[in-house]
Amino acid sequence: MRIIIFGATGMVGQGVLEACLRDEAVTDVLVVGRTPTGRDHPKLRELHHEDFTDFTAVQDQLGGYDACFYCLGTSAAGMKEPAYRVVSYDFPLAAARALLAASPDLAFCYVSGAGTDGTGKTRMMWARVKGETENALLELDQRSFMFRPAFIMPLPGTKAKTKSYVLLYRVVTPLYPLLRRIAPRYVTTSLQLGQAMIQATRSGAPRHVLETADINELAAARPAM
């Protein structure tokens, strides 16, 4: 499989990238981003791109891929809806349209989050915007999958870019083994998320909107690496 990753330098994306580099089924990985990953691997190629609303300049480099693992996102804390919508709706939709034009059979895997609401009835701005994004992607690409993880444990050594997340993980990380035991349906890792994306792309999934328990089941179905 040939995979494109967005957000590979983020807390979630680093684990997803690692899963792809480890998996023998993945032959090529293209990372599209503004910041280098700092990784060196025979499978890996990086494409620097600044404008995530317009991929015209790099369209000719997006063909021949099987899936996009879209891990790019931002916290809604302190953001007004118009600015949040640009990152959480406009960016992924622009990427999906460009990728599907170049690779019509591509599966678009989008990381939203637990609590995302596609009904439009929620009062939580982030949940409503991400729900609109999910709905638009599902309508655009019948092979797409929406991933709604709850708590994600990052790879060891990974640091979140958002200050509030840094503080959260500083408190919660020591409790991860306990959380794993008492609430396994709500806890996953960034590596498992990547494994689940690979499995969904290769073999399909029971549904197109996947919660944490679904993610862990798909990850467990991948051969040991």
UniProtKB/TrEMBL annotation:
Localization per Swiss-Prot or TrEMBL: Membrane
Main location: membrane
Gene Ontology annotations for the cellular component aspect, listed alphabetically: membrane
Residue ranges constituting the NAD-dependent epimerase/dehydratase domain according to the UniProt record: 3-85
Entry-linked Pfam families: Epimerase
PANTHER family, per database record: NAD(P)-BINDING DOMAIN-CONTAINING PROTEIN, OXIDOREDUCTASE HTATIP2
The protein's name: NAD-dependent epimerase/dehydratase family protein
Organism: Streptomyces tabacisoli
